[in-house]
Amino acid sequence: MTSNYDKIKATANYLKDRKGIRQADILLILGSGQSSRFQHFNLKKKVKYSEIPNFPVSTVKGHKGELILGELEGKNILIMNGRFHLYEGYSAREIAIPIQTAFLLGVKSLIITNAAGGINRYYKTGDIVMITDHINLTGENPLIGPNMDEIGERFPQMNDLYTNEYQEKMMKIALKLKIELK
After folding, report:
1. DSSP for 75-125?
2. Phi/psi at 32 (5° precision)
3. Does Glycosyltransferase count among this protein's keywords (predicted)?
4. Who contacts 108 (Cβ-Cβ below 8 Å, separation ≥6)?
5. Is 6 helix (H, G, I), strand (E, B) or coil?
6. How far is residue 12's CA from residue 14's CA, in Å, rounded to a whole number?
7. What does the pLDDT look like over 16-25, one tens digit per residue?
8. 25 close to 108: Cβ distance less than 8 angstroms
C-alpha cells in the first residue's frame, strides 16, 4: 500500500521532472469568481489538474482546474486555479495533497481566496473580508492517519495560523489600493 507521503512526493517529482515546476515561494488558491485574477503575473507554466498524478479534479462550475506557475515581484507563485471541496466527495486528506505537494516544492506561505455567503447583514456581495481565525466544525481533519514527519508536526499550533505579519501586509495593500477591507 502506498503511503500518502509517497503519493505527495511522486506528485512533486512529476511536477519537477515532467512539467518543469521546480520551486515556488507562495501558493495562491483561487476560489469561485477568481479565475481571471492573474493579469499582473508573468505566467511561466500551466498544467491541468487531470494531468497531475494523485491530484483531485475540481468538479465545481467556474473552477478551471489548472495549476499555474507565475512570477510576481521576484517571487515564484504557484496558483491553483480552482479548488476542491468535501461536498465533491473528497476526503480532507485528498484535499490536502496539493498543499502538501506545494510544501515539497518549497512553498512556505499560503493564500486562499473564496466566495462565501454569510449571515452578517453588514456584509454585501463583493465585500473583501480578511479571515483572522476559524473553527473547524466539519469533523474532518487532513492530519488524521499516519503522521508524515517530512511534511511537519502531527498537530501544529493553530494560534498563529493567520499571522499578524500577513494581516498587516493585507491591510497596507488594501489601504494603498483604496479597497475597503472588512
Report:
1. EEEEEEES---GGGT--HHHHHHHHHHHHHTT--EEEE------S-TT--T
2. -55, 135
3. yes
4. 25, 26
5. helix
6. 5
7. 999 999 999 9
8. yes
CA dist 102 to 52, 54, 77, 96, Å?
13, 13, 10, 10
Q: Report, in angstroms and rounded to the nearest whole number, the Rg of the chain calculated over CA atoms.
A: 17
Give the pLDDT confidence of 96-133 residue by residue, as tens digits: 999 999 999 999 999 998 888 788 888 888 888 898 98
Q: What one-letter code names the amino acid at 9?
A: K
CA separation for the pair 125, 45 (Å, rounded): 33
Alpha helices in the chain (DSSP H): 4-17, 92-104, 164-176
| Separation CA 106–CA 24 (nearest Å) | 6
Return the C-alpha cell found at 41: 503575473
Domain residue limits, the chain = 4-117+136-160
Q: What's the grid cell of residue 101?
A: 505537494
User: Which three cell numbers, joined as nine digits, stand for 67?
Assistant: 495549476
C-alpha cell at 28: 495562491
Beta 26-30 vs 75-81: how paired, if at all? Answer: parallel
